[in-house]
Amino acid sequence: MADKTPKEPNAPFATRIDPTKEGLSPEQMHFIRQVELQQWKKKTQQLRTRNVVTGLVIGALVLGIYGYTFYSVSQERIMDEMDEEAKLRRTQGPKNGAN
C-alpha cells in the first residue's frame, strides 16, 4: 500500500501561516491576496460550469417527464376509444351462452 503520510512534514510549501500573527510585509500580504483571488476566481468558474450542467440535466429531465406524460395521456384516449368500440361490439353481437 502507498504511504499517505508526507515524507517531509515541515516542508516550507506545505506550512500554513496566519497573516495576523506572522510579521509579513505589505508586499507579501498583497501577494497572498492576489493568489487567493486567483484561486477564488478559478473555483467559482468551475462551480458555475458545474451548476449550468446540473441545471441543464434537471431541465432535460423535467421536460422528458412532461413530454412522456402528454404521450401517455394521448395513449389512454386511444385505449378508451378501443374499449368503447369493444363494448359496442359486445352489445351488438349475437347473444349466446359464451357471452
UniProtKB/TrEMBL annotation:
InterPro entries: Coa3, Coa3_CC. Its main location: mitochondrion. Keywords: Membrane, Mitochondrion, Mitochondrion inner membrane, Transmembrane, Transmembrane helix. It comes from the Eukaryota. The keyword Mitochondrion applies. GO terms for biological process: mitochondrial respiratory chain complex IV assembly. Residues 1-23 are annotated as: Disordered. It is found in: Mitochondrion membrane. It is a single-pass membrane protein. The chain crosses the membrane at residues 51-71. Residues 39-85 form the Cytochrome c oxidase assembly factor 3 mitochondrial coiled-coil domain. One of its GO terms (cellular component) is mitochondrial inner membrane. It holds the Pfam family Coa3_cc. Belongs to the COA3 family. Core component of the MITRAC (mitochondrial translation regulation assembly intermediate of cytochrome c oxidase complex) complex, that regulates cytochrome c oxidase assembly. MITRAC complexes regulate both translation of mitochondrial encoded components and assembly of nuclear-encoded components imported in mitochondrion. Required for efficient translation of MT-CO1 and mitochondrial respiratory chain complex IV assembly. Required for assembly of cytochrome c oxidase (complex IV). Component of 250-400 kDa complexes called cytochrome oxidase assembly intermediates or COA complexes. This is Cytochrome c oxidase assembly factor 3. The lineage of its organism: Eukaryota, Metazoa, Chordata, Craniata, Vertebrata.
